[in-house]
Amino acid sequence: MQPYELSVADAAEAIRARRLSPVELVDSVLDRIERVEPHLHAYVAVTAEQARSSARAAEREAADGTFRGPLHGIPMGLKDLIDAAGTATTASSWVRSDHRAEADSTVAARLAAAGAVLVGKTHTHEFAYGLITPQTHNAWDRDRVAGGSSGGSAVAVAAGAAGFTLGTDTGGSIRVPAALNGVVGLKPTYGLVPRHGVTALSWSLDHVGPLARTVEDAALVLPALAGHDPRDPASLVTYPADQRPPRGTDLTGVRVGVPRNYYFDHVTADVETEVRRAIDRLEDLGARLVEVEIPMTRYIRATQWGLMVPEATAYHERTLRTVPDRYTEDVRLLLEAGELLSAGDYLRAQRARTMMRQAWTRLFDEVDVIAAPTVPTVAVPAGQDTITWPDGTVESVSDAYARLSAPANLTGVPSLSVPVGHDRAGLPIGMQLLGPPLGEFELLRVGHAYEQSEPARALAPVA
């Protein structure tokens, strides 16, 4: 096994035991990037020299017996919305072609302090305003979409071109590409991970979180990211009390909610089969399955758009007027559409969101977690714009991908996407676990138990 094939947990153990040096690990990942990047286009920029310098520093610390924790010497990528001092943050847009970050974002600074090594900035759908990431190819099939907007981050992990990455999630942008590329994606509780130094799409919906090969890896990354930062007005002072890495497979006493509505509507047969099989596996591990009714489903799409569109337009107001030609057409049209929404529309969306949060709070009185599909279908072929369901309903690809992930953004609850199988063509399928605010540990515990009960997953079969 090559070093780039190691999970974060296994690489961390090898580094601590001095069986592997950070230099060897980073060199292996950089070599892997060089081999797969021409096929996948996961990275906007690769910071090879900076990474090798950081790896040498991590190796010197290890030689002196100093370890900063489980991320010491681990190579990672940052979505190109996240500032890292001295590197460009282009948001994969010509609008930002001249930008260079003067200081680290909070999350970049915290990862550096934890000993992680930045190997590059990963592609996003322009300004995170989409669920495709057209620059990047799916790690399992280059003719299919990577998902978005954190498509580059998911593909890099799936291909072994990073130990872990960070993405952002406004309507599913961590979990959607994670599901489509067969990796783990965690959208934490709103406000748990500070967004200072991260380019915004929608202030009231944006989250930052990790993408990783395993649930255990995501659990190792989260503590390095979480914690209050007064520079983010939404940053929580409260912090989850339990930060232990998940262990074991016994889920006795855990109440798993299985939606009887919404989440299994308009999903492909393969997705439903694999997710229900995974839910049955949770029951085999001791969990108690409880049917639940998802509240206020008819308002989800309108509320998501009613919040996201005007907030995004407000953020881009100046550049939309001065350099509109620098945006791609799909993003420019969405930003212009935001100018047509009234203040009344926005306030009604805020009111609906408040009611939705209250209803979901009551829902988690009945269950500890909810298990459902992450997305209703696998990665579609690049260039496909719509999905036609068996009943004749036609849905845009972006709406389909956001439909099942948006509720967690509207309510702010944590959500974890875990790979649970493949369709008949061999494309990955993801199961989404949702929990109450600050319920990350329980999500990670359930996801890890499922993962440990299944055969180990391989990297995507990239040439």
UniProtKB/TrEMBL annotation:
<dbReference type="InterPro" id="IPR020556">
    <property type="entry name" value="Amidase_CS"/>
</dbReference>
<dbReference type="InterPro" id="IPR000120">
    <property type="entry name" value="Amidase"/>
</dbReference>
<dbReference type="Pfam" id="PF01425">
    <property type="entry name" value="Amidase"/>
</dbReference>
<dbReference type="GO" id="GO:0003824">
    <property type="term" value="F:catalytic activity"/>
</dbReference>
<protein>
    <submittedName>
        <fullName>Amidase</fullName>
    </submittedName>
</protein>
<dbReference type="InterPro" id="IPR023631">
    <property type="entry name" value="Amidase_dom"/>
</dbReference>
<feature type="domain" description="Amidase">
    <location>
        <begin position="24"/>
        <end position="444"/>
    </location>
</feature>
<dbReference type="InterPro" id="IPR036928">
    <property type="entry name" value="AS_sf"/>
</dbReference>
